[in-house]
């Protein structure tokens, strides 16, 4: 899903002059990475909770959502920094 949406945004950025193709490419790369990251973290925390004998449903929504939102932004900014050639 992330790859499909990323390619759609890349295509949209090529057609519409309001978004540069660099930004479209950045989103096209970052979106699948963040989607894979979210799936991996969701599976990890659910399995960890089950292993520690907690209810996996309790950890899956609030904890994973918060962690994925915050770390997903970090992943996006690292991709943007690399794609756009931003130096510190």
UniProtKB/TrEMBL annotation:
Membrane-spanning segments: 27-49, 61-79
Record localization: Membrane
Membrane topology according to the record: Multi-pass membrane protein
Keyword Ribonucleoprotein: no
Ranges for domain SLC41A/MgtE integral membrane: 1-79
Pfam families recorded: MgtE
Record-linked InterPro entries: SLC41_membr_dom, SLC41_membr_dom_sf
One CC-aspect GO term: membrane
Example GO molecular function: monoatomic cation transmembrane transporter activity
Family to which this protein belongs: Belongs to the SLC41A transporter family.
Protein name: Magnesium transporter
């Amino acid at each position: 899903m992330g790859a499909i949406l990323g390619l759609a945004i890349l295509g949209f950025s090529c057609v519409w002059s309001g978004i540069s193709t660099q930004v479209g490419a950045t989103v096209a790369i970052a979106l699948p990475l963040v989607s894979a990251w979210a799936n991996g973290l969701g599976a990890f925390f659910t399995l960890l909770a089950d292993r520690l004998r907690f209810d996996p449903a309790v950890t899956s929504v609030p904890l994973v959502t918060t962690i994925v939102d915050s770390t997903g932004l970090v992943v996006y900014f690292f991709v943007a920094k690399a794609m756009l050639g931003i130096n510190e």
